[in-house]
Automatic annotation (TrEMBL):
GO molecular function: ATP binding; carbamoyl-phosphate synthase (glutamine-hydrolyzing) activity
Species annotation: Russula ochroleuca
UniProt keyword S-adenosyl-L-methionine, yes or no: no
Protein name from the UniProt record: Carbamoyl phosphate synthase arginine-specific small chain
EC number(s) given by UniProt: 6.3.5.5
Pathway stated in the Swiss-Prot or TrEMBL entry: Amino-acid biosynthesis; L-arginine biosynthesis; carbamoyl phosphate from bicarbonate: step 1/1
Domain Carbamoyl-phosphate synthase small subunit N-terminal: start-end pairs: 26-167
GO terms under cellular component: cytoplasm
Keyword Ribonucleoprotein: no
Domain of life of the organism encoding this protein: Eukaryota
Length: 438
């Protein structure tokens, strides 16, 4: 008798948390530079846009993927049929020892457009405040629904990623663009567009100081460092870290969009850091490629890249929480990779390799190199994705903390030696007492 009203109230509350706002049905089409076209209807912003067409096999976390700065300039095709069913959360969080100002991976949508088989007209989640349609509208991002995303994915897998155009409304009735009309985002320095312009500090009360070179960092990278007690100083991608490096216990190089060849100036500066600095360095995705380029490896463009939350990698070496011979499932989003070569540059070794395509997924400094440097192509911070390699952040912060402790001991030893020398000098400067006859 008592439970029925409660159950009814529960379902009533659940229905209140489900919102509906159907997008206006406007014709839209995806044109690929390779000649294929896919016609559907528009949601989000009713505007046409060019970009690089890529696909992601992620089943969940569409909000995290769309706010990942690494997708800047890209038309993101989701292979999962239904997208938008749990809406979009309020994207503001505190800046404290637990968070970094946003809930998602950046303050807004980063991809140029989104393509889905079926966009959810209703959504339901206790944190959701708006639909995928209204969110895209607010950020002026067009969406395309009602197309066969699996067919698009097969095309991209067979012929590689290609440039594209999402044409909406009256533009959808026009012929496809000419080949020379397509915009190629890789020709621009996307990192410079997305990186912070001014340094800023997160969790200044942290007990270990880590500098982050921002090539387009996901928020969960900074969040992972902050939650492990680090004071994080975020720097522009081309900042000369060597000028201020002695203030820090470690250096982190973030992920980012586009072609790493656009960031050679950062690689040259890092080469100086590697030659003259011996504190821990860790890089992810673009940061990993910059480390590889500074070490003497080549970065190349892959056919269709790896994007999804289910990429297996094999560890070739042990380090911290990572054990050689074990396969880890990882989250990835990259079009470029470091070229595997034999021999590897002196002082370096492969760390991970992709189990599907044998691409290099990580490098590290060798134990006899007198360096502590790690780079991984995947995203150990997940968001979304598996947590198999999350402890790499714990390993890195522990190394930085050990470096700070080592520096303190060294300073204490120097200070103690200085005090002893000063006392000895003061004692030697005292004039000898002359015996006085009674």
């Amino acid at each position: 008798m008592i439970t029925r009203p409660i159950i009814r109230l529960s379902f009533s509350y659940r229905s209140l948390s489900t919102h509906a706002r159907s997008p206006t049905s406007i014709p839209a089409v995806l044109h690929l530079k390779t000649g294929q076209s896919f016609t559907g209807s528009s949601f989000g912003a009713p505007r046409s846009i060019f970009g690089e067409t890529v696909f992601s096999t992620s089943i969940t976390s569409y909000t995290e993927s769309m706010t990942d700065p690494s997708y800047r300039g890209q038309i993101l095709v989701f292979t999962t049929p239904l997208i938008g069913n749990y809406g979009v959360p309020h994207n503001i969080a505190p800046r404290d020892s637990r968070d970094v100002g946003v809930v998602l991976e950046s303050s807004g949508i980063q991809c140029a457009a989104v393509v889905v088989a079926d966009v959810a007209e209703k959504f339901s989640h206790y944190t959701a405040i708006e639909s995928l349609h209204t969110w895209c509208s607010r950020y002026k991002v067009p969406g395309l629904t009602g197309v066969d995303t699996r067919a698009i994915t097969r095309l991209l897998r067979d012929q590689g990623t290609t440039l594209g155009r999402v044409a909406v409304g009256d533009d959808a009735a026009l012929p496809p663009p000419n080949e020379n009309e397509y915009w190629d985002p890789s020709q621009e320095n996307l990192v410079d567009q997305i990186s912070t312009k001014e340094p800023y500090v997160l969790n200044p009360a942290g007990d270990v100081r880590i500098a982050v070179l921002d090539f387009g960092a996901k928020a969960n990278i900074a969040r992972a460092l902050v939650r492990r007690g680090a004071a994080v100083t975020v720097l522009p991608w081309n900042y000369d870290f060597n000028v201020i490096r002695d203030k820090f216990d470690g250096l982190f190089l973030s992920n980012g969009p586009g072609d790493p060849q656009q960031c050679w100036s950062a690689a040259h500066k890092l080469r100086t850091t590697l030659d003259e600095w011996r504190k821990p360095i860790f890089g992810i995705c673009m940061g990993h490629q910059i480390i590889g380029m500074a070490a003497g490896l080549d970065a190349y463009r892959m056919t269709f890249g790896n994007r999804g939350h289910n990429q297996p990698v094999l560890a070739l070496a042990s380090s911290g929480s990572i054990r050689a011979g074990r396969v880890y499932v990882t989250s990835q989003n990259h079009q470029y990779a470091l070229r595997l070569q034999d021999p590897f540059p002196e002082g370096w070794e492969p760390f991970f390799i992709n189990c599907n395509d044998s691409s290099v997924e990580g490098i590290k400094s060798t134990s006899d190199s007198n360096h502590r440097v790690w780079g991984v192509q995947f995203h150990p911070e997940s968001a979304g994705g598996p947590l198999d390699t999350m402890e790499m952040f714990t390993d890195f912060v522990a190394e930085c903390r050990a470096e700070r402790l080592k520096a303190r001991f060294a300073k204490a030893s120097v200070d103690t030696g200085t005090i002893l020398r000063e006392k000895e000098s003061a004692f030697n400067d005292v004039p000898e007492l002359t015996a006085v006859a009674a």
